[in-house]
Amino acid sequence: MLFARKTQGTNKDRNNMRISGVNIPENKRLEVALTYLYGIGRMTATKILNEASISFDKKAKDLSTEESNKIRDLLGKYKLEGDLRREVSSNIKRMKDINSYRGIRHAKSLPVWGQRTKTNSRTTRPYKGRKTMTSGRRKMEKK
């Protein structure tokens, strides 16, 4: 699943480093560029670059093929992209199936990790038609 592809076309697209189907941006520092992969954060990116003994300030376009292969080999240890997404979704499905507390919260699309829901959960809580916080009283019509 991990592979590099050099595309034909303009000079801009010529040296794109591609890992697990994701283009690694060539003008960003490697420490940040590796975080474009799902499952790789800043800490994991720094750990990989330390093991590969590559500078954090180096950019993807400046990498030699040997260095990029070394990064690719080290990334092979981790579950990335599609495999990781599949595992997370299957874990959530399993929790829903066994009717655990977290599974029920996922099914109702409510916050799972103990956040309050009276306020501050508007992005996850289903609205049921409510637009703003009001007392619920109807305004009297003026005649």
Summed up:
This protein is mainly α and 143 residues long. The chain has helices spanning 11-14, 30-33, 42-51, 65-75, 81-97, 101-107; strands at 17-19, 22-24.
Tell me what the structure shows:
The protein is mainly alpha-helical and 143 residues long. It folds into two domains: 11-75, Helicase, Ruva Protein, domain 3 (Orthogonal Bundle), CATH 1.10.8; 82-127, 30s ribosomal protein s13, domain 2, CATH 4.10.910.10. It contains six helices and two strands. The protein has helices at 11-14, 30-33, 42-51, 65-75, 81-97, 101-107; strands at residues 17-19, 22-24. The protein has a two-stranded antiparallel ribbon with strand order 1-2. Strand 1 and strand 2 form a beta hairpin. Residues 8-13 have low confidence and may be disordered.
